[in-house]
Write a structure and sequence with these properties.
The chain is of the alpha+beta class. It contains three helices and five strands.
Length: about 140
């Protein structure tokens, strides 16, 4: 497997590690939106959010919460985003589960909101029904 995050987790590629335990690693993104932008990964390889076992899903959120608090304090951020892209269509560039914790500052203008759309007549009910049927 030629996964850059697996190589970082195995210490084959250097990184600015902020946190590590037996299951997870957190390190600074080398192309940050703002200083302090951190990536949180499971050491085991999972491609997307949907592939994460429940235990890892729960624990990565606990680790991310702890890191977000430290990042906010360290950077004097006014807020933060937690972002996860899944599959290339959603912007996933590395096919290994990872959360971005991005410190945000008032008026940093680094993250623009996407324009919102509206449902066509009857479309909201049809989409809701289809999703519910698959749960």
């Amino acid at each position: 497997m030629d996964c850059i995050f697996c190589k970082i987790a195995k210490k084959q590629i250097p990184s600015a590690v902020l946190y590590e335990d037996k299951d997870f690693l957190a390190f600074l993104d080398i192309g940050p939106v703002n200083p302090g932008h951190t990536l949180v990964i499971p050491k085991a390889h999972y491609q997307t959010f949907l592939d994460l076992p429940k235990k890892e899903l729960s624990n990565i959120n606990i680790v991310s919460q702890k890191l977000a608090a430290a990042i906010m304090k360290a950077t004097n951020a006014h807020g933060f985003n937690i972002v996860m892209n899944n599959h290339p269509a959603a912007g996933q560039e590395v096919n290994h589960v990872h959360f971005h914790i991005i410190p945000r500052f008032d008026n940093d203008n680094k993250w623009l909101r996407q324009p919102k759309t509206k449902y066509k007549d009857g479309e909201i009910d049809a989409i809701a029904a289809k999703i519910k049927s698959l749960l």
